[in-house]
């Protein structure tokens, strides 16, 4: 009953939107017919009309989307940065969120942009990427950063707090973020040995990675770390003279700023969009724990194929602690990875022994795969 009623209401709204479109078109036709002699009026009206038509179209798209959502179906995806990753191979999703987009595009040109980095993040996570450009000045921190507080080493013991606009975070300092979770790299020096240790078969220390590449007469110079948080992998590779760019989102923490303050390159891109890199240009792609079973399968397929696109022939794809339900790893993910046709250099599985791992019967997979030199 409730659902039927909602459908009817939506149909009515759609009908009204269409009628409004037609009335506007008629209005446009009649005004242009009535005032053929005035040269200024016809240019003023179409702009306004176009704008209104756009708004109506965005509303129709939005309503159609609402109508297609089954309200009884509950999502099992955790409240995380992957929540909004849905299938959008092209950046067509901006129009699906007219309220957010409208809010984002409401500003005064050539003045300070609204303090809305959280809004930008919401839009990007919903697939609106790249964001539309604006003609306002982005917010900057209030106090200047003393030049000597910018670290040269990628594993400094602290990061300068006044390099960040903290408005939208509960924490107001890197120290606070580090107290909340010391594993996130906001005190970078704590991560200095992270990629050098070998505790279980799921680890792949960097020196081993270099040995493997060397034995295969392959060179590592350029890499991509996908969902790389505060950039500790890129930092460890920098010490080896390898350039790694890190994709990261500012979900609940200034990750991009932290990466940049370490002298590394943050790419502000979500997991569901085409990577801003050319075909066949990187020697190595690492997927950290952001890439796991929470990503809907069709998105995962597009993601893996896009990673294949940016890797050069003979380049390496490293899945670092990928996790999924044990049965899915065998039945779904291993066959999907197999479709890439890569050489399995390392393939290690292990039980995920934290609370959610035990509850869901999850396994970890760490795999190092080599792309064929030519296809
Ligand atoms: C990195 O490059 C510097 C300068 O060329 C060199 O001194 C250093 O030995 C290199 N480090 C590694 C690990 O190759
Ligand atoms: C996971 O643990 C079970 C026993 O609890 C064991 O039989 C199995 O071999 C383990 N799997 C892996 C991949 O280590």
From TrEMBL:
Species name: Psophocarpus tetragonolobus (Winged bean)
- In which compartments does the protein localize? Endomembrane system; Membrane
Q: Mention one GO molecular function.
A: methyltransferase activity
Q: Which Pfam families match?
A: Methyltransf_29
User: Of which family is this protein a member?
Assistant: Belongs to the methyltransferase superfamily.
PANTHER family found in the cross-reference section: EXPRESSED PROTEIN, S-ADENOSYL-L-METHIONINE-DEPENDENT METHYLTRANSFERASE SUPERFAMILY PROTEIN-RELATED
Q: Main subcellular localization, coarse class?
A: membrane
For this entry, the protein name equals S-adenosyl-L-methionine-dependent methyltransferase
Q: Which UniProt keywords apply?
A: Glycoprotein, Membrane, Methyltransferase, Signal-anchor, Transferase, Transmembrane, Transmembrane helix
